[in-house]
Amino acid sequence: MTAIPGPLRSMVFRSADLPALFHRTDAEAVARRREAVNTTRGQLALLVLGTLPAALPWHLQVGGPVRLLDCVAVTAYVGVLMTTYLASRRKAKSHWQLNRSAAEFIKSNCWRYAVHGSPFDTGTPHPEAVFANRLEEGLQELRKVGWQDPREERDDEGGGLITASMRELRGKAFTVRKETYVRDRLIEQRRWYRRRQQVSRKGALVWSGAIAALTLPALVLSVLQALGNAGSFALTGSFSAAAAACLAWNEMRRHQPLVSAHSLVEEDLENMQAAMETTLTERQWAAAVFETERIVSPEHTDWLARHRM
After folding, report:
1. In the chain, where are the structural domains located?
2. Whether 236 contacts 225, CB under 8 Å
3. Which of 31, 62, 108, 306 is the most buried (most CB within 10 A)?
4. What single-letter DSSP state applies at residue 2?
């Protein structure tokens, strides 16, 4: 947290000013996401690799009837089974989503508390107790569905749930809190969604192109075989498997749905920014912050990605 010289001592509030519980949960979400993505990527690559030996026109003998390339296929399929079994035990994707939900829930409530957003607005009696109760109630719901609270493993979190920077920002005048929230939360989120929209759009183009590039040769080989102009083309199956892997990867990453979802969220945040910087009064502030935090929640983005046509 940094104070900017000026009549109202404007503040800069960053992620570093959030409590240790957020940082540990966020780090766990990042690690689990990486594990889940790498596992899926490896499974798809192994499935495609397993089809190649049967498609190649030669076989390498290593002694007796054993063929080296066929051994590669066997190894690939065994690898798929092993990674699938390990993934079912570790549940990386579920833990990734749960930790991401927990981290964003903590971050959102910290911002609401620090800038007097609902339900921690200016008139709330004992806001620190309300904050702690609300946070624990929300995290308890996540524990019921499998979230592992890092505080249960270690007792050295230190600093509690409310940091000194959060208390300092909450004690500032309305104009300072508004400026800090708009600049360090709302505008930062707009930029993040704009970047993610660009990444998703690029990913959708790349993987759609890859699917088409792999499907076309499979189509040509199939047509030639159907017309009787050539014998059997074993590579058709490999091209099909590779195209299917690209399709599965594209669906898992949800590039196209996220382009629309991120675009809508960025547009909503732009409207909220315009209102906060012009017509919004202090009486309307708590509800406006609550609405902004609802817009940037992962659940809202996921709902848009699922239902946006």
Report:
1. 6-307
2. yes
3. 108
4. E
